[in-house]
Amino acid sequence: MGKAAKTGIAQKTGFQLMNGMLNIVMVIATVIVAVVTYQAKFRARALELEIHVLNQTNRSIRNDLTVLRAEQAYLSRPERIERLARKFLTLTPNEAGRNLTGASLLSGREDMESRRSAMQVLEKMRSRDKARVLEARTEAQKMGIATVLVRPLIARKAVPQQRAVSAAQVMGVTHYSRDRAGDAQSPPKEPLEKLRSRPEVPKPKWTYHGGIGDDD
Amino acid sequence: MMTNLSLRFGKLAGFGLPKKNKLARKKSVSVDSENLKAVGADKGIWLHSAPWRYWMVFLVFGLIFLVIGGRLILLGVSSNDYAGYRLPTQGKVAVDRPEMVDRNGVLLATDIRTASLFAEPQKIIDIDEVLEKLAPLFPGLDMKRLEKRLRSKARFAWIKRKLTPAQQARVYALGLPGLSFTDEPQRVYPQGITAPHILGSVNLDNRGGSGIEKFIDRQIAIEGDGTDGHYIRDEGDGRRIITLSVDNRMQYLMRQELLQAKKKYHAIGAAAIVMDIHSGEVLAMSSVPDFDPLKPKQVLQRKRFNRMSRGVFELGSVFKTYTMALGMEVGKASFRSTYDVTGPIQVGPSRIKDFHGPKGWLNLAEIFTHSSNIGCARIADSVGIARQKSFLKKLGVLARLQTEIGDVATPLLPRRWKRVNMMTIAFGHGISVAPLQFVATSAALYNGGFQVRPTFLKVNKRHNPNKTSRRVISARTSEKMRVLMRLNVIKGTGRGTNVKGYDVGGKTGTADKPTRGGYGPDVISSFISIFPAQNPKYIMYVMIDAPKGIAETGGKKYASVNAVPMTASLIRRLSPFLGLQAKEKDALWFDMEQFADMR
Question: Is the CB of residue A23 less than 8 Å away from at least one CB of chain B?
Answer without folding.
Answer: no
